[in-house]
Design goal:
single chain, alpha/beta, UDP-N-acetylmuramoyl-L-alanine:D-glutamate ligase
Protein backbone atom coordinates (compact mmCIF):
# COMPACT_ATOMS: atom_id res chain seq x y z
CA UNK A 1 0.00 0.00 0.00
CA UNK A 2 1.23 3.50 -0.77
CA UNK A 3 -0.93 5.60 1.59
CA UNK A 4 -2.62 4.94 4.94
CA UNK A 5 -5.44 7.18 6.19
CA UNK A 6 -6.28 7.16 9.89
CA UNK A 7 -9.42 8.73 11.33
CA UNK A 8 -13.19 9.20 11.17
CA UNK A 9 -15.90 7.44 9.18
CA UNK A 10 -19.45 8.90 9.11
CA UNK A 11 -22.75 8.77 7.35
CA UNK A 12 -23.76 12.26 6.19
CA UNK A 13 -27.42 13.33 6.45
CA UNK A 14 -27.73 16.39 4.20
CA UNK A 15 -30.49 19.01 3.93
CA UNK A 16 -30.34 21.61 1.15
CA UNK A 17 -31.78 25.03 2.04
CA UNK A 18 -32.02 28.45 0.43
CA UNK A 19 -29.96 29.95 3.26
CA UNK A 20 -28.33 28.72 6.45
CA UNK A 21 -30.49 29.15 9.58
CA UNK A 22 -29.63 31.64 12.30
CA UNK A 23 -29.41 30.56 15.93
CA UNK A 24 -32.77 29.17 17.05
CA UNK A 25 -34.30 29.47 13.57
CA UNK A 26 -35.93 26.72 11.50
CA UNK A 27 -35.47 26.92 7.74
CA UNK A 28 -37.52 24.62 5.48
CA UNK A 29 -35.25 22.59 3.24
CA UNK A 30 -35.57 21.89 -0.47
CA UNK A 31 -34.05 18.40 -0.60
CA UNK A 32 -32.66 15.66 1.65
CA UNK A 33 -30.15 12.94 0.85
CA UNK A 34 -27.72 10.70 2.71
CA UNK A 35 -24.16 10.00 1.65
CA UNK A 36 -21.07 8.27 2.96
CA UNK A 37 -18.68 10.69 4.65
CA UNK A 38 -16.25 11.27 7.51
CA UNK A 39 -13.00 13.13 6.88
CA UNK A 40 -10.70 10.11 6.84
CA UNK A 41 -13.13 8.04 4.77
CA UNK A 42 -13.54 10.91 2.30
CA UNK A 43 -9.79 11.29 2.00
CA UNK A 44 -9.31 7.57 1.45
CA UNK A 45 -11.94 7.54 -1.30
CA UNK A 46 -10.35 10.63 -2.87
CA UNK A 47 -7.03 8.78 -3.02
CA UNK A 48 -8.60 5.60 -4.42
CA UNK A 49 -10.44 7.57 -7.13
CA UNK A 50 -7.10 8.98 -8.23
CA UNK A 51 -5.84 5.45 -8.81
CA UNK A 52 -3.55 5.08 -5.79
CA UNK A 53 -3.68 2.11 -3.38
CA UNK A 54 -4.94 3.21 0.03
CA UNK A 55 -5.83 1.64 3.38
CA UNK A 56 -8.21 3.17 5.92
CA UNK A 57 -7.91 2.63 9.67
CA UNK A 58 -10.85 3.58 11.89
CA UNK A 59 -14.07 2.27 13.41
CA UNK A 60 -17.76 1.96 12.56
CA UNK A 61 -20.67 0.81 14.70
CA UNK A 62 -22.41 -2.52 14.50
CA UNK A 63 -25.46 -0.98 12.82
CA UNK A 64 -26.92 -0.74 9.33
CA UNK A 65 -25.08 2.52 8.74
CA UNK A 66 -21.77 0.80 9.48
CA UNK A 67 -22.39 -1.93 6.92
CA UNK A 68 -23.41 0.65 4.33
CA UNK A 69 -20.25 2.65 4.98
CA UNK A 70 -18.00 -0.41 4.70
CA UNK A 71 -19.63 -1.52 1.47
CA UNK A 72 -19.25 1.95 -0.01
CA UNK A 73 -15.56 2.12 0.90
CA UNK A 74 -14.85 -1.31 -0.50
CA UNK A 75 -16.71 -0.52 -3.73
CA UNK A 76 -14.61 2.65 -4.07
CA UNK A 77 -11.42 0.59 -3.94
CA UNK A 78 -10.35 1.36 -0.36
CA UNK A 79 -8.70 -1.43 1.64
CA UNK A 80 -10.89 -1.71 4.79
CA UNK A 81 -8.96 -4.43 6.64
CA UNK A 82 -7.97 -1.79 9.21
CA UNK A 83 -11.56 -0.77 10.00
CA UNK A 84 -12.99 -2.22 13.23
CA UNK A 85 -16.72 -2.96 13.56
CA UNK A 86 -17.80 -2.15 17.13
CA UNK A 87 -21.11 -3.86 18.02
CA UNK A 88 -21.53 -1.79 21.20
CA UNK A 89 -22.07 1.64 19.63
CA UNK A 90 -23.51 3.46 16.63
CA UNK A 91 -21.60 4.61 13.58
CA UNK A 92 -20.60 8.25 13.28
CA UNK A 93 -23.30 10.50 11.84
CA UNK A 94 -22.94 14.05 10.48
CA UNK A 95 -25.94 16.36 10.06
CA UNK A 96 -25.14 18.82 7.26
CA UNK A 97 -27.08 21.87 6.07
CA UNK A 98 -26.04 23.30 2.68
CA UNK A 99 -27.27 26.60 1.22
CA UNK A 100 -27.64 27.77 -2.38
CA UNK A 101 -24.11 29.24 -2.39
CA UNK A 102 -22.61 25.91 -1.37
CA UNK A 103 -21.76 27.03 2.17
CA UNK A 104 -22.54 24.58 4.96
CA UNK A 105 -22.84 23.94 8.67
CA UNK A 106 -22.06 20.51 10.14
CA UNK A 107 -22.84 18.82 13.46
CA UNK A 108 -21.48 15.35 14.20
CA UNK A 109 -22.42 12.54 16.57
CA UNK A 110 -19.04 10.78 16.63
CA UNK A 111 -20.22 7.37 17.84
CA UNK A 112 -17.63 4.70 17.02
CA UNK A 113 -15.09 7.36 16.03
CA UNK A 114 -14.82 8.37 19.70
CA UNK A 115 -13.76 4.82 20.58
CA UNK A 116 -10.79 4.50 18.20
CA UNK A 117 -8.03 3.28 20.51
CA UNK A 118 -5.12 0.86 20.81
CA UNK A 119 -6.62 -1.86 18.58
CA UNK A 120 -6.76 0.52 15.62
CA UNK A 121 -3.23 1.77 16.29
CA UNK A 122 -2.01 -1.85 16.16
CA UNK A 123 -3.72 -2.32 12.79
CA UNK A 124 -2.21 0.97 11.64
CA UNK A 125 1.27 -0.14 12.72
CA UNK A 126 0.91 -3.28 10.63
CA UNK A 127 0.32 -1.25 7.46
CA UNK A 128 3.18 1.21 7.85
CA UNK A 129 5.90 -0.98 6.35
CA UNK A 130 3.99 -0.81 3.04
CA UNK A 131 3.28 2.92 3.25
CA UNK A 132 5.07 6.03 2.02
CA UNK A 133 2.54 8.60 3.24
CA UNK A 134 0.21 8.74 6.26
CA UNK A 135 -2.78 11.10 6.37
CA UNK A 136 -4.52 11.84 9.69
CA UNK A 137 -7.23 14.17 11.06
CA UNK A 138 -8.81 15.01 14.40
CA UNK A 139 -12.21 13.31 14.20
CA UNK A 140 -10.98 10.62 16.62
CA UNK A 141 -9.47 10.97 20.12
CA UNK A 142 -6.40 13.20 20.17
CA UNK A 143 -4.36 10.69 22.20
CA UNK A 144 -4.93 8.09 19.48
CA UNK A 145 -3.86 10.54 16.75
CA UNK A 146 -0.68 11.26 18.70
CA UNK A 147 0.05 7.54 19.12
CA UNK A 148 -0.42 7.03 15.38
CA UNK A 149 1.85 9.99 14.59
CA UNK A 150 4.59 8.49 16.76
CA UNK A 151 4.31 5.18 14.91
CA UNK A 152 4.38 6.89 11.49
CA UNK A 153 7.46 8.89 12.45
CA UNK A 154 9.22 5.76 13.74
CA UNK A 155 8.58 4.10 10.37
CA UNK A 156 9.88 7.10 8.37
CA UNK A 157 6.54 7.79 6.71
CA UNK A 158 5.71 11.28 5.44
CA UNK A 159 2.92 12.35 7.78
CA UNK A 160 0.18 14.85 6.92
CA UNK A 161 -2.21 16.21 9.55
CA UNK A 162 -5.51 17.80 8.52
CA UNK A 163 -6.29 19.56 11.84
CA UNK A 164 -10.06 19.23 11.65
CA UNK A 165 -12.39 19.49 13.43
CA UNK A 166 -10.75 22.75 14.52
CA UNK A 167 -8.95 22.48 17.86
CA UNK A 168 -6.66 24.76 19.85
CA UNK A 169 -3.77 23.78 22.12
CA UNK A 170 -2.57 20.73 20.23
CA UNK A 171 0.38 19.08 22.03
CA UNK A 172 3.84 20.20 20.95
CA UNK A 173 4.82 16.58 20.39
CA UNK A 174 2.18 16.25 17.66
CA UNK A 175 3.46 19.31 15.81
CA UNK A 176 6.99 17.92 15.91
CA UNK A 177 5.87 14.45 14.78
CA UNK A 178 4.22 15.55 11.51
CA UNK A 179 5.81 16.66 8.25
CA UNK A 180 2.93 18.77 6.92
CA UNK A 181 -0.15 20.44 8.40
CA UNK A 182 -3.07 21.60 6.22
CA UNK A 183 -5.51 23.86 8.12
CA UNK A 184 -8.17 25.98 6.46
CA UNK A 185 -8.68 29.57 7.65
CA UNK A 186 -10.90 28.64 10.60
CA UNK A 187 -8.60 25.83 11.74
CA UNK A 188 -5.49 27.97 11.35
CA UNK A 189 -7.13 30.69 13.44
CA UNK A 190 -7.82 28.15 16.19
CA UNK A 191 -4.26 26.85 16.11
CA UNK A 192 -2.45 30.20 16.27
CA UNK A 193 -4.91 32.31 18.27
CA UNK A 194 -5.55 35.12 15.78
CA UNK A 195 -7.81 35.55 12.76
CA UNK A 196 -6.55 34.09 9.52
CA UNK A 197 -8.48 35.54 6.58
CA UNK A 198 -6.11 35.91 3.63
CA UNK A 199 -2.59 35.49 2.33
CA UNK A 200 -0.97 37.97 4.72
CA UNK A 201 -2.39 36.42 7.87
CA UNK A 202 -1.83 32.92 6.45
CA UNK A 203 1.86 33.79 6.13
CA UNK A 204 1.90 34.91 9.77
CA UNK A 205 0.10 31.72 10.84
CA UNK A 206 2.58 29.57 8.92
CA UNK A 207 5.46 31.28 10.73
CA UNK A 208 3.82 30.51 14.09
CA UNK A 209 3.26 26.87 13.13
CA UNK A 210 6.90 26.53 12.08
CA UNK A 211 7.84 27.89 15.50
CA UNK A 212 5.70 25.15 17.06
CA UNK A 213 7.73 22.51 15.22
CA UNK A 214 5.87 21.83 11.96
CA UNK A 215 8.19 21.46 8.96
CA UNK A 216 5.70 22.36 6.21
CA UNK A 217 2.43 24.33 6.32
CA UNK A 218 -0.38 24.73 3.80
CA UNK A 219 -3.22 27.09 4.73
CA UNK A 220 -6.18 26.61 2.40
CA UNK A 221 -8.05 29.87 1.81
CA UNK A 222 -11.13 28.78 -0.13
CA UNK A 223 -11.84 31.30 -2.87
CA UNK A 224 -8.44 32.92 -2.19
CA UNK A 225 -6.43 29.80 -3.04
CA UNK A 226 -3.77 28.31 -0.78
CA UNK A 227 -0.62 29.54 0.94
CA UNK A 228 2.30 27.14 1.36
CA UNK A 229 5.40 27.50 3.51
CA UNK A 230 8.41 25.25 4.06
CA UNK A 231 11.73 25.78 5.82
CA UNK A 232 13.23 27.21 2.63
CA UNK A 233 10.38 28.67 0.58
CA UNK A 234 6.86 30.10 0.64
CA UNK A 235 4.36 30.72 -2.13
CA UNK A 236 0.70 31.28 -2.91
CA UNK A 237 -1.31 29.15 -5.33
CA UNK A 238 -4.24 31.04 -6.82
CA UNK A 239 -7.71 29.47 -6.86
CA UNK A 240 -9.32 27.83 -9.86
CA UNK A 241 -12.55 29.48 -10.99
CA UNK A 242 -15.46 27.01 -10.97
CA UNK A 243 -19.22 27.10 -10.33
CA UNK A 244 -19.68 26.21 -6.66
CA UNK A 245 -22.50 23.78 -5.84
CA UNK A 246 -21.45 22.33 -2.47
CA UNK A 247 -18.22 22.85 -0.51
CA UNK A 248 -18.59 19.66 1.57
CA UNK A 249 -15.43 17.50 1.23
CA UNK A 250 -13.48 20.07 -0.79
CA UNK A 251 -10.76 19.99 1.86
CA UNK A 252 -10.78 16.19 1.82
CA UNK A 253 -10.33 16.17 -1.95
CA UNK A 254 -7.45 18.63 -1.53
CA UNK A 255 -5.73 16.49 1.09
CA UNK A 256 -6.27 13.26 -0.80
CA UNK A 257 -4.71 14.61 -4.00
CA UNK A 258 -1.93 16.23 -1.99
CA UNK A 259 -1.08 12.86 -0.42
CA UNK A 260 -1.13 11.13 -3.82
CA UNK A 261 1.26 13.72 -5.26
CA UNK A 262 3.70 13.37 -2.36
CA UNK A 263 3.54 9.58 -2.53
CA UNK A 264 4.32 9.88 -6.26
CA UNK A 265 7.47 11.86 -5.53
CA UNK A 266 6.15 15.29 -6.55
CA UNK A 267 7.53 18.46 -5.01
CA UNK A 268 5.51 20.29 -2.38
CA UNK A 269 4.69 23.01 -4.94
CA UNK A 270 3.33 20.42 -7.37
CA UNK A 271 1.44 18.67 -4.58
CA UNK A 272 -0.35 21.90 -3.63
CA UNK A 273 -1.40 22.36 -7.25
CA UNK A 274 -2.75 18.80 -7.35
CA UNK A 275 -4.74 19.49 -4.19
CA UNK A 276 -6.08 22.75 -5.61
CA UNK A 277 -7.35 20.98 -8.74
CA UNK A 278 -9.05 18.20 -6.77
CA UNK A 279 -10.65 20.67 -4.34
CA UNK A 280 -11.98 22.78 -7.22
CA UNK A 281 -13.58 19.77 -8.87
CA UNK A 282 -15.17 18.62 -5.59
CA UNK A 283 -17.15 21.85 -5.10
CA UNK A 284 -18.88 21.45 -8.48
CA UNK A 285 -20.96 18.47 -7.29
CA UNK A 286 -23.21 17.63 -4.33
CA UNK A 287 -22.25 15.39 -1.46
CA UNK A 288 -19.00 14.27 0.11
CA UNK A 289 -17.63 11.13 -1.54
CA UNK A 290 -19.97 11.52 -4.51
CA UNK A 291 -18.26 14.84 -5.34
CA UNK A 292 -14.70 13.52 -5.32
CA UNK A 293 -13.11 13.57 -8.80
CA UNK A 294 -12.02 10.52 -10.73
CA UNK A 295 -8.60 10.31 -12.36
CA UNK A 296 -9.74 11.35 -15.84
CA UNK A 297 -11.50 14.54 -14.65
CA UNK A 298 -8.55 15.35 -12.42
CA UNK A 299 -5.94 14.91 -15.17
CA UNK A 300 -7.98 17.01 -17.57
CA UNK A 301 -8.29 20.02 -15.26
CA UNK A 302 -4.67 19.67 -14.07
CA UNK A 303 -3.47 19.84 -17.68
CA UNK A 304 -5.72 22.79 -18.46
CA UNK A 305 -4.64 24.74 -15.39
CA UNK A 306 -1.01 24.01 -14.55
CA UNK A 307 0.69 22.06 -17.35
Amino acid sequence: MTIVVFGSINLDLVVEVSRLPSKGETVIGNRFFSAAGGKAANQAVAIAKLGTPVSLVGQVGGDRFGQTLLENLSNAGVNIEGVTVNPHTHSGVASIVVDEKGDNTIACAAGANNLVREEEVKKFRGLLSQSKVVLMELGIPLATVLAAAREARANNCFTILDPAPAMSNLPDELYRAIDLITPNEIEASQLVGFTVDGVTTARQAAFCLHQMGVKNVIVTLGSQGAFCSSATDSFWVEPISVSVVDTVAAGDAFNGALAVAIASGKSLAEAVRWGTVAGALAVTKNGAQTSLPNLDRFKQLLAQTFL
